[in-house]
Amino acid sequence: MTTSVKPSLTKADLTELLYDRVGVNKREAKDIVDGFFAQISDVLIEGKAVRISGFGNFQLRDKAARPGRNPKTGDLIPISARRVVTFHASQKLKELVEDCAD
């Protein structure tokens, strides 16, 4: 069986799915989606990890400053220290994705 795959899933798509599958009105669905992502952002901004059971973990990682290179000129440029968000899929999600590839 062939399935068509969209290149990405947007917040608008999630809103539409809530509207269609759960039955909340579109305004409520948009508020739920926006609230969900705002909560994840707020927790990460506080410096805490976000764990969503059966899906995965969003974690913060501090990256040290390091030398970099401008690919056009070859000049050395400093890359400053920064904090980045990483995502690690849960074993359950990994298995679901792997099963779809077969």
Show the helix and strand layout.
Elements: H1 11-21, H2 26-45, E1 50-52, E2 56-63, E3 66-69, E4 76-79, E5 82-89, H3 91-101
Antiparallel strand pairs: 1-2, 2-5, 3-4
Helix pairs in contact: 1-2
Radius of gyration: 19 Å
Number of strands: 5
Structural class, from helix and strand content?
Answer: alpha+beta
- Indicate the proportion of strand residues: 25-35%
Largest sheet: 3 strands, antiparallel
The low-confidence runs, each spanning 5 or more residues with pLDDT under 50, are none
CATH C-level name of the largest domain: Few Secondary Structures
CATH homologous superfamily of the largest domain - what is it?
IHF-like DNA-binding proteins
Strand line-up of the largest beta sheet = 1-2-5
| Residues in helix, % | 40-55%
Shape: extended
Mean pLDDT score, rounded?
A: 92
Looking at the overall shape, the CATH architecture of the largest domain is Irregular
**Overall tally of domains:** 2
Description:
With 102 residues, this protein is α+β, with helices and mostly antiparallel strands. The chain folds into two domains: 10-48, HU Protein, Chain A (Irregular); 49-101, HU Protein, Chain A, CATH 4.10.520.10. It is 41% helix and 26% strand. The chain contains three helices and five strands, in the order H-H-E-E-E-E-E-H. Strands 1-2-5 form a three-stranded antiparallel beta sheet. A two-stranded antiparallel sheet has the order 3-4. Helix 1 (11-21) packs across helix 2 (26-45).
